Amino acid sequence: MNQFSYSESDAFSVEGKLALPYQYFAGTLGSEFLVSLRDRRKLLGRRCSRCKKVFVPPRSHCEHHLDAPCDEWIELPGTGTVRGFTVVRYAEPYQPCPPPYILALVALDGADSSLVHLLKGLAPSEVRVGLEVKAVYAKDPQPTILAIDHFAPAGKPRQELGYSYEELELGMTASFTKTITETDVYLFAGISGDFNPLHMNEEYAKTTAFGTRIAHGALPQSLIAPVLGMKLPGLGTLAVEVQCAFKAPTFFGDTITAKATVEEKQAEHKRVKLRCDFTNQHGQLVATGWAVVLPPRKG
Ligand SMILES: [Zn+2]
Q: Which of 18, 54, 91, 297 is the most exposed place for a label (fewest CB within 10 A)?
């Protein structure tokens, strides 16, 4: 062993810190973009002379047309729609603000590219894809992208429509499950006006073939409405026709699953037929039928 060797027990690591200040030329277009943000609080994009797509930050050429310049400045309104987001929950020295904070991918109105930026003015649990946002400029803007201090909600979230006719495929399914309580039966009696003692009077019900009170047949059947209207196809759906056959009684406390399955696509009117099955907690079929619906149209 010589004076330069060390044993395993001597191994150590050195902690240190390197500061790496840097600067770069933002380029002719980048400089114009940043100066516009700082001095005029205007977001600029650059339009391709060939495909007319608008890019932010500005580019000299789009990726498809290297032989044709992006030669036109486009002033954008600074509004957009959240297309994706993440919530940062840990702190690092290089981060722009203390956690938790939201980073959103904003599809800018008037542009064909998206910008990642801070989203403030709402709780992380409130962010939704489809949220309309607007740029909020810094009080003392510097020539960086943080001249836009952050984006903030500009309105109510756009409701995402359900599946369109084109998006629906045979075999797609969705379901909704609920336990039918005595309260549900009383409420349904009030809604429908059906106070039949079979549903209301236990002593009477004991004398029937069921031996106890049962729910209205249309009550479990109504559980298909949240499936069709909120899941499959979903928001924007119009029910055209619903058929149902009752197969077994639903007792108080039964848990019913309403399931819809896309069975047929009717091209002529762009309607879809779904098979509707209602089963209880034992897997027993309590009702079965089908529905024809008009799915939401998009675009
Ligand atoms: Zn192009």
A: 18
What CATH number should be reported for the domain whose range is 173-294?
3.10.129.10
131 with 153: CB under 8 angstroms? yes
Q: 84 C-alpha vs ligand 1 centroid, how far in Å?
A: 25
Q: What is the pTM of this model?
A: 0.53
pLDDT band at 96 (very low <50, low <70, confident <90, very high): confident
| Pairwise CA distance, residues 258 & 255, whole Å | 10
- Asked if pLDDT for residue 1 goes beyond 60, the answer is no
Mean pLDDT of all residues belonging to the chain: 92
CA of 154 relative to ligand 1 center, distance in Å: 30
The domain locations on the chain are: 27-153, 173-294
Alpha helices per DSSP H over 26-143: 27-40
**How many angstroms does the Cα of residue 292 sit away from the middle of ligand 1?**
44
- What's the token pair of residue 216? 């209205």
- All residues with CB under 5 Å from ion ligand 1: 48, 50-51, 62, 64-65
CA distance 65 to 286: 62
Q: Kindly give the distance from the C-alpha atom of residue 11 to the centroid of ligand 1, in angstroms, as a whole number.
A: 57
DSSP string, 104-115: EEEEETT-SSEE
